[in-house]
């Protein structure tokens, strides 16, 4: 699986703007699945699932990575061809579709994050940690700020540098029996106005 695929075809762009196909793709980024398995996950008919799989495979967004025979039936395992997708500059005339695709991809990621959160074990949240969030065994933060695009890109560059360093450290823990599985997710995007700036402090109320 490639780390990133550049989308150069308009039909690929349209496919990734479909809410259900985004959910399907996010599953296939995580792990290979058969049509039957996906049918059970999404509680949809195999015919409908296979229709979407055929279309995504035709567009070069997913591929068959292995086959297995079960009860005389050949099962095909599908997987995404890349971990992430980004539209090429040649598609810039389709700005509305690009915006919708990015929005749907992020919404799908958020939806998947919510599912993983609900599936997490209780002991992931039971420990009464110290007051300093940096010492907690969970990570949750949400905030808004006003900066230039240059400074936002500075932040994202630092974020990905740290992510790469973290992934390299994680490789050292692969065989460590004390290592645990953690689900990580991150978002950042422009908004029209800051909701946080509307907050009123207790000192303001007393004036």
Helical proportion, percent range: 40-55%
Count every beta strand, where a strand is a DSSP E run of 2 or more residues: 4
Supply the CATH superfamily name of the domain at 5-122.
Winged helix-like DNA-binding domain superfamily/Winged helix DNA-binding domain
Give helix and strand order, one letter per element, not per position.
EHHHHEEEHHHH
Q: What is the name of the CATH class of the domain at 5-122?
A: Mainly Alpha
Distance between the termini: 59 Å
Provide the CATH topology of the domain at 5-122: Arc Repressor Mutant, subunit A
- Class derived from helix and strand content: mainly alpha
Which word captures the global form? globular
Summed up, the helix count is: 8
> Radius of gyration from the CA trace?
21 Å
- With strands numbered from the N-terminus, the spatial order across the biggest sheet is 1-4
């Amino acid at each position: 699986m490639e780390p990133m695929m550049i989308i150069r075809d308009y039909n690929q762009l349209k496919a990734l703007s479909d809410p259900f196909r985004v959910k399907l793709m996010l599953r296939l980024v995580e792990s290979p699945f058969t049509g039957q398995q996906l049918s059970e996950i999404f509680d949809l008919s195999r015919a409908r699932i296979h229709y979407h799989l055929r279309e995504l495979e035709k567009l070069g967004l997913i591929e068959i990575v292995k086959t297995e025979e079960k009860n005389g039936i050949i099962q095909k395992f599908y997987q995404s061809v890349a971990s992430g997708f980004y539209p090429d500059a040649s598609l810039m005339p389709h700005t509305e579709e690009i915006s919708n695709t990015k929005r749907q991809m992020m919404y799908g990621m958020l939806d998947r994050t919510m599912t993983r959160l609900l599936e997490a074990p209780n002991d992931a949240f039971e420990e009464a940690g110290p007051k300093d969030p940096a010492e907690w065994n969970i990570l949750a933060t949400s905030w808004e700020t006003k900066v230039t695009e240059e400074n936002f890109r500075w932040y994202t560059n630092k974020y990905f540098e740290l992510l790469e360093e973290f992934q390299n450290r994680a490789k050292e823990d692969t065989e460590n029996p004390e290592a645990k599985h953690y689900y990580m997710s991150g978002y950042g995007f422009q908004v029209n106005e800051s909701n946080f700036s509307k907050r009123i402090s207790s000192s303001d109320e007393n004036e």
